[in-house]
């Protein structure tokens, strides 16, 4: 059943960054029946033009400041480091009524920066849609990308959840098919280090290892079946996306990697006894829980 778009105070939306997530937000808004104006900014003129042609935005802006000056809602859909830079750069040019949010995969550094800048006037709300693809870029944008995905909101203060702009944004998130949940920024970053960032690095590391081994040893890639392809699916993700994630969540990721290394050492030590069976059973129980949550 389609979610209906509520009457919204957001009549002009600015999307800064027209890649996979920014483009998908624009397409999702249009699919949900958004009647306002969507303006988009990207550095490359080809991307801006493509976004208009694909219907992700109504108009393109070649200037990031001009794109947000009349916006009711600003969505920062760039890499994390660029989001942090935009927070200060855009603040003086935002209408006082505006809500500004981001799509960054880490939240603590972004929210700490925003808390220093956004005091009164425009309101900042951290955001992280738990959706994506291995391939980035506007060409992979999808109006249905956020459907049934959890969408994490990290307000700077708990009372911000009562602000009419935040409530309107939650309704917008629901209208594009996502399921909004609220989290503390630090708790968010700890969790995604294990549930998102660790799987990415494991996939990339495994694929990199096999790439090394196939040159050094007689490793026949024709024997790579669906299991190997499934585990290394995330290795298609570009470094340009993950560089800032690793930089801004390094301590949590290092702890997660240490825990994984300990687990792998334990498995290595118990390849010949029943402890290995217990690991398989524990893994299957977790998979059952994940299926129950979906």
Describe the overall structure.
- It is a single chain.
- The protein is α/β, with parallel strands linked by helices.
- The protein has 11 helices and 8 strands.
- Helix 4 runs parallel beside helix 5 and helix 7 crosses helix 10.
- The chain is globular and about 65 Å long.
- The protein folds into 2 domains: 12-183, Rossmann fold (3-Layer(aba) Sandwich); 188-293, Orthogonal Bundle (6-phosphogluconate dehydrogenase C-terminal fold), CATH 1.10.3660.10.
- The chain has an 8-stranded mixed beta sheet, with helices on both faces.
SSE map:
Elements: E1 12-16, H1 20-31, E2 37-41, H2 45-54, E3 59-61, H3 64-68, E4 73-76, H4 80-90, E5 99-102, H5 108-117, E6 123-129, E7 150-155, H6 164-175, E8 179-182, H7 185-216, H8 226-231, H9 239-248, H10 250-269, H11 275-293
Helix pairs in contact: 4-5, 7-10
Give the key terms:
50% helix; Rossmann fold; 294 residues; eight-stranded mixed β-sheet; alpha/beta; single chain; 6-phosphogluconate dehydrogenase C-terminal fold; 11 helices
Quick recap of the structure?
The protein has 294 residues and is of the alpha/beta class. The protein is built from eleven helices and eight strands. Strand 1 (12-16), helix 1 (20-31) and strand 2 form a beta-alpha-beta unit.
For the largest sheet, list the strands in their spatial order.
3-2-1-4-5-6-7-8
- Contiguous low-pLDDT stretches (5 residues minimum) are none
CATH architecture of the largest domain: 3-Layer(aba) Sandwich
Average of per-residue pLDDT values: 94
Task: Determine the fraction of residues in helical runs and give it as a percent range.
Answer: 40-55%
Question: What Rg, in angstroms, do the CA atoms define?
Answer: 21 Å
Which structural category do the helix and sheet elements fall into?
alpha/beta
State the shape: globular
Number of domains: 2
CATH topology-level name of the largest domain: Rossmann fold
Assigned CATH superfamily of the largest domain: NAD(P)-binding Rossmann-like Domain
Count every helix, treating DSSP H or I runs of 4 or more residues as helices.
11
How many beta-strand elements?
A: 8
Distance between the termini: 17 Å
Largest sheet: 8 strands, mixed
> Order of SSEs, N→C?
EHEHEHEHEHEEHEHHHHH
So what's the CATH class of the largest domain?
Alpha Beta
Beta-strand fraction estimate = 5-15%
């Amino acid at each position: 059943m389609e979610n209906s778009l509520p009457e919204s105070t957001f009549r002009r939306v600015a999307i800064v960054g027209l890649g996979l997530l920014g483009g998908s937000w624009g397409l999702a808004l249009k699919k949900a029946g958004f009647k306002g104006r969507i303006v988009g900014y990207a550095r490359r003129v080809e991307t801006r033009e493509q976004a208009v042609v694909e219907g992700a935005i109504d108009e393109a802006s070649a200037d990031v400041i001009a794109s947000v000056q009349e916006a009711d809602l600003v969505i920062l859909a760039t890499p994390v480091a660029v989001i942090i830079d935009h927070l200060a750069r855009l603040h003086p040019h935002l209408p006082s009524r505006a809500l500004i949010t981001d799509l960054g995969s880490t939240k603590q550094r972004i929210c700490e920066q925003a808390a220093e800048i956004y005091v009164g006037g425009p309101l900042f709300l951290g955001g992280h849609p738990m959706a994506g693809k291995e391939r980035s870029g506007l060409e992979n944008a999808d109006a249905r990308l956020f459907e049934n995905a959890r969408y994490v909101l990290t307000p700077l203060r708990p009372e911000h959840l009562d602000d009419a702009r935040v409530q309107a944004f939650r309704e917008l998130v629901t209208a594009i098919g996502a399921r909004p949940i609220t989290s503390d920024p630090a708790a968010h970053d700890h969790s995604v280090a294990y549930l998102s960032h660790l799987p990415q690095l494991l996939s990339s590391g495994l694929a990199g290892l096999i790439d090394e081994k196939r040159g050094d040893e007689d490793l026949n890639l024709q024997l790579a079946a669906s299991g190997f392809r499934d585990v290394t699916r995330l290795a298609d993700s570009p470094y340009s996306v993950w560089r800032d994630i690793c930089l801004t969540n390094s301590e949590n990721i290092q702890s997660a990697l240490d825990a994984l290394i300990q687990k792998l050492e334990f498995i290595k030590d118990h390849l010949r006894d029943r402890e290995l069976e217990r690991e398989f059973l524990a893994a299957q129980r977790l998979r059952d829980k994940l299926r129950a949550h979906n």
